Amino acid sequence: ISLLASSRTARTQEDRYPVNRRLTILAVLMAPLITGVVSLGMAACAHAPRSGPELLTVAERSFSDIPFGTREGVPGLTMVIEGQCQEWGECSYADANGVEHYFREGELVVKAYAFTEGDTRPSPVLGIGTARHMDAVLSRVERFLPEVEIECRPEPDHGQTCGATLGEGWINLQFDRDGRIREARLDAYHFT
Question: Edge-to-edge strand order for the sheet containing 159-166?
Answer without folding.
Answer: 78-79, 90-94, 99-104, 107-114, 181-187, 169-175, 159-166, 151-155
